[in-house]
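Late entry, evening session. Most of the bench is empty. Finally got around to the prediction I had been postponing all week. Sequence below, unchanged from the version circulated by S.P.
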Amino acid sequence: MSVGRRAGERQQEFWVATQDMSAVPRHAFYDELNRLLADAGFDEWVEKFCEPYYAQGGRPSIPPGVYFRMLLIGYFEGIDSQRGIAWRCADSRSLRRFLGYAETEETPDHSSLTKIRQRLPLEVFNEVFGFVLEMVDEQGLLKAKTVGVDATTLEANAAMKSIVRKDSGDDWEEYLKGLAAEEGVEIKDKADLIRYDKQRKKQGKKTVSNKDWESPADEDARIARMKDGRTHLAYKAEHVVDLETEVIVAAEIYHADQGDAATLIESLETAQENLNQAGTCRNIEKVVADKGYHKAETIAECDELGCFGVKTYIPEPERPTQRRWTDKPESHKRAVYENRRRTRRGYGKRLQRRRSEVVERSFAHTCETGAARRSWLRGLDNLQKRYSLQAAAHNLGLILRKIFGTGKPRSLQGGGWLVVCLSLTVAELQVTLRPTRGQFGAIGRPMLRRQPLTLAA
């Protein structure tokens, strides 16, 4: 047999019969996800819900179910930009089938995704998140009795070099030239300006504040310290996660300069609203967070949330002096002491270990493998729309992990394929229980008689 050689450029066929096209293997993960959404009636529901935001006449637009499926693909495939999502959907035949497009049809362009996002308000995305949360509850994966809360930073689509002064509108170079002129330092070229800037950094004078600086490209972005130590314009993402089932109950986006204690109550209220929207009769009873959320006012407000209050398990940071309560209400003092007593117990320490495991894993799925750490959108509402779908896709992955054996399509590339094959061929596994005399083991349970297992090719 001789070596095969790749043909060069050749003329394309004018007519191609569909029966002559090569068949592509079906993607088991996306087929299962489509079946899950179809059983829940997702397309009919979302089309009816989005209908008021479209015109009555004219050419039919991209179905809302296709739009939201493309955002789910961004999470499952680890694609952060709309251009990348549109290219991936146009290139993959299995994703075309997932979206419901034939080989001769064009998939939506990235500009269409932008127009749909601008047309649909934030309430629609929150309703889709609640719809998925209801699906999670139907699978028995939602408990929401004890939740963990934590936050991380998301890099904004704006550069630090573009920030300007709020009072004068000067950029960084003009600001440095003004400071050098005041100090009597002569600046001849840009090299002198860079040298002067580095000298200010060594002297500890190079500081920027959100009170004085802003980004003209993204007014909602704030200057913040990233996880890797870099200073960048960023947003803050906060998760409220069910510690028992790892379901994200709320995923909110805030300004990066807002403290953790300042946003805890709002996140808990949003999480409770999502639970009520999903039709669950559950109330959040306990919240677990790190010491960055410790504040007397916040802990006291948690005790008053809901009908019976929310118990806090928040470690208290070390203080050099003893705290005084002369300027605080008695309710704040009582709430802090009760929180301290609960945190120091063994149960509270176990909850902290569980929180550090579960909540950090949710950030790893949504921000790292889900490619949401770097945003290509601008504005608080736009980021909230996209991030709500990231959290909804994470929750769908938990459902698929329960009924399908894997929560992401890339898991099929490793050893997870064996679990999928077992789930697909479970009908071929025949287990017979024959509790006859002499067939019981030492522990008193009937022994299993299994017929040979055969896996489909």
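Two things to note before I forget:
The chain has four domains: 23-120, 124-154+224-380, 160-220, 415-450.
The first helix runs from residue 28 to 39.
Will write this up properly tomorrow.
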